[in-house]
Design goal:
By secondary structure, the protein is α/β, with parallel strands linked by helices. Helices cover about 45% and strands about 15% of the residues. It comes from Novosphingobium decolorationis.
Length: about 140
């Protein structure tokens, strides 16, 4: 797995404050899935030297359900931390953990960047492109 030098992406930070987010979609998936995702994310943070300030998850909830607080409480709690300026970045396993629809992806991207944070998705960075996040990813590369 390739690792970007985060110091180039987040200049001036000693150790970016990172929130982790994990989700699995249905009761048919393994409930350990979020635990496994979070462990992988913790490992990435340890390798990069990032400070984990929070872990959030939603279980048996489809990303297609939207991003409203009543549907995805873990996601909403994570965004509250980011929008309060307490986190420098969100780390999640893949774009589909955050959103399944481009409209939701754009809203998330706008809210996170307005808060002065970034979204870091190893699968997109290491295996670009991520189809339904194409517009936000292009905006990140340009900005």
């Amino acid at each position: 797995m390739n690792s970007l030098n985060w110091r180039n992406c987040l200049p001036g930070l000693q150790r970016p404050k990172t929130v982790l987010y994990a989700r699995y979609s249905t009761g048919l998936q393994n409930p350990r899935s979020t635990d496994d995702q979070l462990q992988d994310l913790r490992n990435r943070c340890a390798r990069e030297g990032w400070e984990v300030i929070g872990e959030f998850k939603d279980e048996a909830i489809s990303g297609a359900a939207g991003i409203k607080a009543d549907v995805r409480p873990g996601f909403a709690a994570m965004l509250e931390v980011v929008e309060a300026g307490q986190a420098d970045q969100i780390l999640t396993e893949a774009t589909d953990r955050l959103a399944r629809h481009q409209r939701d992806a754009l809203e998330i991207f706008e809210r996170v960047t307005f808060a002065g944070a970034r979204i870091f998705i190893p699968r997109c960075i290491d295996q670009y492109p991520c189809a339904h996040w194409r517009i936000p990813m292009d905006m990140m590369r340009q900005g």
